[in-house]
Write the structure tokens for this entry.
Amino acid sequence: MKVLVLENSRIFQKMLGDLLEELHCEVDHVRSADEGLSKLEENSYNLILAGQAMFDGASTEFTKYCSTRKDKCPIILLTSEPNEALMRNAEAAGITDIFPKTNFTYLRESISYYIEGETRFDDLQGGKVIYVEDSRSVAHVMIRYLEKLNLNVSHYSNAEEALKAFNENDFDLVITDLVLDGSMSGISLVRMIRALNSDEANIPILALTGHDDPKRRIELFRAGINDYVTKPPIEEELAARVNNLITNKRLIDRVREQQKSLYDVAMKDQLTTCHNRHSLVALAPKYIADSVRYKFPLCMLILDLDHFKQINDQHGHTTGDVVLASVGKLLMTACREGDFVARIGGEEFTIILPHCTAEDSLIKAEKIRTSIEQLKPTGITVTASIGLASLEDRHSANFDNLYKDADHAVYQSKENGRNQTTFYQNEGGARADAI
């Protein structure tokens, strides 16, 4: 990036030069408005930084150049003593921004913004846009603008097709005209997307409108758009708005990914990918409360690997970790999407089975037990003792009460020879039936 610095202070000129070189800029320095005009006749620049003396009324030629320039180069006024007359002259000259010389940290950040602004559209590479427009001529121009930003554009002439494509693919931005062919308008499309029960409902939406009417704008924002441009769009304005929307979405996506990673660290067992004890304590009461409220059956299964200490002692803890990871993967695969699988310590796992009767849970537990026996991770035969309990009124919708019954059942499985499933029943006293 090429920058022209017009500054008569050698000290500040040196400071600016060092800063700009640090930001990988090519810099030309001049000390007067006349020298600056000569440079501008010979070269083109991406940014101009001009000291206060260039706008104090003495440098009329440079001020005239600023007010009549046809290029898109930002011109920044650097001042240590802002005053009303200076501000008027700068405003009349059409400068882009005013930075204080006294705050060098702020100055650096501000200059960085303009430097990055020249290249930030390149960051949109690979961005996916769904664009809805029924006018071929308008669509042709818009697509050309968007593709210059290195965006992948999927164009549809009506909202019905666009909504179908939106539900089947991932996009970074929706751009839609408001008046469209077909039974669905652009506003209807916006409302349909915002009504989705998923993260996709939060995708940024840019509306195209032929009327810049305040009431219309309010209606659009209430419908859920993030921004709008009037037709025909100015290319630079469209680029800036599209860039802001996609950049913000990517930042939000990054935050969401970080939140998920933090959640996984806090709530997942890293070795087995199952939930951990903390997750069980936090989420199990909700499973039980929902079972009571909506009156559906729920069972809890506790699984304990048999003689796991011997596996660690004979084969090493690395092999023991492989066994645990293999069993965890098996449990996650064997259970339904709505089931809850947690490793709660050492070689012990808990599974919550909502919408599952005692009979079905017994069948499920036996299939899991048999699968573990057949698993043979690293060639080692592994078996499991399983205890099972069904949520009943006597548990008083209390997780601890249900857990105690399942834990008692797994204890009975071990006492009766291991590698079996025991269902806890309470008929005239605690009794565990082994299978």
User: Anything to note?
Assistant: The CA atoms of residues 255 and 261 lie 10 Å apart. Confidence is low (pLDDT under 50) at residues 428-432.
